[in-house]
Amino acid sequence: MIIAEQKPLKEIIHNLEGHRNILVAGCRSCVAICLAGGEKEVGIVAEALRVYGEMHGKLWTIEEITIERQCEKEWVREIQAVVSSKDAILSMACGVGAQVMQEIYPDIRVVPGLNTSNMGAPEEQGIWREKCAGCGDCVLHLTGGICPIARCSKSLLNGPCGGSQNGRCEVNPDSTPCAWDQIYHSLKRLGKLEFMEQIIPPKNWITSHSGGPRLIVRQDAVLTPEEKAEKGVPK
Ligand code: SF4
Ligand code: SF4
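That is the input. Now the predicted structure with iron/sulfur cluster docked in place:
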């Protein structure tokens, strides 16, 4: 899932300066799970903006809505009636959702309410850890199911650096386990320790974001113009 956290309220208020009719728009997916932009957080931010407005004589009206997924056009289009009267949307979705919102409503300013951080997973209640950096060429089959790109601070592909101490990463020992220590223990458990001796060649980063924005096309799933017309898919 995508992990994000709320921007400081002060920054949100600054970024909304000059707008009168504001919609605070949440998302019920990843950002709801990481307690950043679901219905509850939308309610809290919207109320904080209303209170701030009253205290500082701001003539803004704040409405709120939470949709299933802001990263999918279909859900975003459904709120057209609510959005059309607004001059700004505070998107409480991840950066993907905020961009889809802007794409569907190009004439209404979309302001991000969250800082999108990483692709990760809940570790325990209230703790989320980065797991994947979306490199486009997965090596988990060689590393005991633990990602050396996202989880090693130096993205090392062939074993730990000299700073690994007692299973902790030298870059941030308090919060970060050494990924290569974890890889070693995982491979040992799996009976695949010989993988530690296998040299992973230098990575071709062209499949990662270094090669530019990625585009995935599944030709078998792409609709023909006729099928689009039949299904009423907007252009
Ligand atoms: S190797 Fe690449 S695709 Fe696989 S988990 Fe790590 S970053 Fe993600
Ligand atoms: S201590 Fe481990 S996780 Fe940290 S940079 Fe070195 S190998 Fe990577």
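The CA atoms of residues 175 and 191 lie 28 Å apart.
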